[in-house]
Amino acid sequence: MTTQTSRRAVVPDDLFQMRWLQSAAIAPDGQAVAYAVASYDADDDADYAHLWLLHVPTGGTRRLTYGKQEDKNPQWSPDGRQLAFTSTRGGKAQLFILPVDGGEARQLTRLPQGVGGGPAWSPDGSRIAFTAGPPPPAGGSQSQPYRITRDTYRFDGIGYLDPAVQDIYVVAAAGAEAPTRLTSDLASNNDPQWSPDGQEILYSATMLPDSLRCFHPRLRIVDLHGQVREVVDEGMHVISGAWLPDGQQIVFAGAPEGLPIGSKSDLYLASAGGRGEISNRSAGLAVGIANRLQADMPSQLTRATPRLLVTPDGQSAVVQVQEGGRVALYQIALHGPEQWTRLAGGERACIPLDISRPGGSLLFAASDWHEPLDLWLLPGQGAAEQRLTALNADRLAGLQQAQVERLLFPGPDGVPVEGWMIMPAGGQPPFPTVLYIHGGPHGAFGAIYHFDTQMLLGAGMAVLMINQRASTGYGDPFATAIKGDWGNLDYGDLMAGVDEAIARGLADGERLGVCGVSGGGNLSCWIVSHTHRFRAAVPENPVTNWLSFYGVSDVGVWFAVEELGGHPHEIPEVYRRCSPITYAHTCRTPTLLVQGESDWRCPAEQSEQFYTVLKANGCPVEMLRLPECSHTGSRVGKPAMRRGQNEALLEWMLRYVV
After folding, report:
1. Do the beta carbons of residue 171 and residue 108 sit within 8 Å?
2. Residue 357 and residue 27: Cα distance in Å, rounded?
3. Rounded CA gap, 556 and 153, in Å?
4. Rounded to an integer, what distance in angstroms lies between the CA atom of residue 413 and that of residue 373?
5. Cα distance between residue 362 and residue 318, in whole Å
6. Cis peptide upstream of residue 163 (ω within 30 degrees of 0)
7. How far is CA 154 from the centre of its chain?
8. How does pLDDT run across 118-171, given as a tens digit for each residue?
9. Cα separations (Å) of 358 from 101, 332, 343, 471, 540?
10. From CA 467, how far away is CA 22, in angstroms rounded?
């Protein structure tokens, strides 16, 4: 048995030795699971993903695909004999079909624009739905002068929307015909799901060309003739949906428009006919469904839209529910009195993936403080859950595990706040400590794998994580408390947590650093502009100036209004008061700004402004630029971007904190 003393500390290169679960689906009979795993290729400095097959009764695995490509999103045919998946072999992603019992994959599409999302088999197995962008030259090109007419014309992680939005397509599984395009409305239409009778497709529509709130999905249904209808009216903010087995109703996660930003989402039932009365099935649940914890690992599951899984009998739905620093799986009744049961929980984060039919075995992924995502199975009829994979067992066996101590302390107004002191194995406190702040701000940290933390621990530092005011998982009053008042209660909660860690003898108050991404970058900038107690700061992709953010961010024109309470011309003083740039001239803390150059959520000018003010006022400051990197690219993007952020964060904290 490997002991903590015989294990070595984590180093930055360990990120590239791990295997990362990307997607998975369970066979209709529940006897097998197909899944995609990504790993790093040092020769190409690139990630590749391949498909694997797991036999549930024995636990045996078999690799299905090879090569320097990304094979993802395996989906079982209804008869369980074939897998449809997407692959980049040959260039842009296309649809392929692979016989499960052996044989070569057969290419199903050859679209010049490639395939985006899917695949989804029709109930009879004769057709497959998927998504793809507009065919060229209709998609246009940004290499020549071009005109913009969309309300929101570019989006983080996507780029300019006109050539990138998705439509719903259907292709015969036999491959005898060209794909049929069912939608063509300049929206980005995703997540196709067939109706039980195979005559319609439910999907999520975002990036509507005439909406500034393009981030908010609309739930729609299209038939095989291209006729589209709305499931619920535009007064609902929808996250995701699913058919009930009778084909007459749709269950979806969402919340009414007009609630304070950060309010919880609930589970609703609606008529598939559209625009009928809807019923809330989780109104009595104190915390929202479909929330998740912020991780640091390159898995598409950590950023994918949370799924709703309807049980085979249609009586309930399985959803993820964040409970503070944990994410559990709940089964919520769809009929009768409100009722829910926790199916899987504990000190971890769970993600529902699939349900076998008719058996009802629940496939899910789970991660905790110490391990990245792995596959688990919860068989039907009350059987105990079963771990299916241990993708990184051999790698983790030789690495030290963190010590995690939960903190519960009062915020500045006495409201309880939760946090965690994550400490190096075998070390003795007090530790040099990095306050790592989550983004959102309506997100949360907790029991999910976070590589930056492991790396900092490996260098002898502790990491303090706090779910400050605005965090989800603690009820609506907590999550909505900072509207129009950024930098007050949230800042107070963070400082109270630092004081608590010092008072317990865990953190060294003379050796403190602070960092965070997005909203965490905003608070990092705020902190070093309001106190000199930190020796170093690494804000990544921050919001520093709400006024300019309003005009340049892909979500600025609605997000700033929701968060601050109005437009800049209506409440200019709030925009000034809540912007770190207002106070940046007071900063004396050595600051390294990390900025993705293709970040359209918090564009580079936000970091550039802060950098310039610090330079002009004599504060030690540097900026790391990440070329062609999106808002989350240092976590899920190209290896070079992940490596650059990791090494820069570690070097800065070692230089100034330790």
Report:
1. yes
2. 8
3. 13
4. 37
5. 9
6. no
7. 19
8. 999 999 999 999 999 998 875 556 678 889 999 999 999 999 999 999 999 999
9. 22, 19, 19, 38, 47
10. 27
